[in-house]
């Protein structure tokens, strides 16, 4: 069966083969995986703390930054009706939160150092919305970007192009395919969302464009459309070895 599949794949001109990752690429992706798991564990911990405190009628914030301050204030409140045993549990949760913060910070500092040392990452970070985490993940996941014919192929590989359906001679587009590298897709969408938040204050062409899309089709579709453009820009920049150029509105 394996031999048959290989023969069939070779005969398909559009078949995409997965490149073998270097040791350096594997190490970078390993760093991303452990960071991602630590972030998920931290989110789960904050949700757990919120549920525990809800039993005492205490509202706990959702954001990590506010949660750090809130747990310190709650533990310092001597007038609280919390039992001594529950207070010990909450102190353990506080310590675990601090430990996860420390681990995540350590991983992110390592990723930032890798990004600063790699010229290709520095090139990618000239794209608005692309920081050290996205740049290193993209470079380590893709490897040689010339394996893709164009930026649209890279965007499709990440899962940022719309699904196309047709029947009765009519074609229409639905939501994004969500195929391929989900981690890269998430990073690019987060970056695009950050760009959209400040786009109204900026006069460049891309900011004006994404604001226009947001007004016409909604923020979520604008974010996905921008993430798609970011992926295409990344391909073009790596192929041409040119930094991102901010274009003023005409």
Automatic annotation (TrEMBL):
Per the record, the domain of life is: Bacteria
Any idea which UniProt keywords this protein has?
Coiled coil
**Occurrences of domain Transposase IS116/IS110/IS902 C-terminal (ranges):** 121-199
A Gene Ontology biological process in which this protein takes part is: DNA transposition
Q: Which terms in the Gene Ontology molecular function aspect does this entry carry?
A: DNA binding; transposase activity
Q: Does the keyword GTP-binding apply?
A: no
What InterPro entries does the entry give? Transpos_IS110, Transposase_20
Q: Which residue windows are coiled coil?
A: 90-117
PANTHER family on file: PUTATIVE TRANSPOSASE FOR IS117-RELATED, TRANSPOSASE FOR INSERTION SEQUENCE ELEMENT IS1111A
> What is the name listed in the Swiss-Prot or TrEMBL entry for this protein?
Putative transposase IS116/IS110/IS902 family protein
Q: Which organism is it from?
A: Magnetofaba australis IT-1
């Amino acid at each position: 069966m394996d031999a048959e599949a290989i023969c069939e794949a070779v005969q398909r001109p559009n078949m995409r083969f997965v490149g073998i990752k270097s040791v350096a690429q594997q190490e970078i992706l390993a760093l991303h995986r452990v960071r991602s798991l630590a972030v998920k564990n931290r989110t789960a911990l904050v949700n757990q703390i919120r549920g525990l405190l809800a039993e005492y009628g205490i509202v706990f914030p959702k954001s990590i930054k506010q949660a750090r301050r809130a747990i310190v204030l709650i533990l310092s409140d001597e007038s609280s009706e919390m039992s001594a045993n529950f207070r010990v549990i909450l102190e353990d949760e506080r310590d675990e939160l601090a430990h996860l913060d420390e681990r995540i910070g350590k991983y992110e500092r390592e990723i930032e150092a890798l990004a600063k040392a790699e010229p290709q990452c520095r090139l990618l970070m000239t794209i608005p919305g692309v920081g050290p985490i996205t740049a290193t993940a993209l470079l380590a996941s893709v490897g040689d970007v010339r394996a893709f014919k164009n930026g649209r192929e890279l965007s499709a590989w990440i899962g940022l192009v719309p699904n196309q359906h047709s029947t009765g001679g009519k074609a229409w587009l639905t939501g994004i395919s969500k195929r391929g590298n989900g981690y890269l897709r998430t990073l690019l969408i987060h970056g695009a969302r950050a760009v959209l938040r400040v786009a109204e204050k900026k006069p460049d062409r891309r900011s004006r464009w994404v604001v226009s899309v947001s007004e016409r089709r909604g923020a979520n579709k604008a974010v996905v459309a921008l993430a798609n453009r970011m992926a295409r820009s990344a391909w073009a920049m790596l192929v041409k070895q040119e930094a991102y150029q901010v274009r003023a509105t005409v």
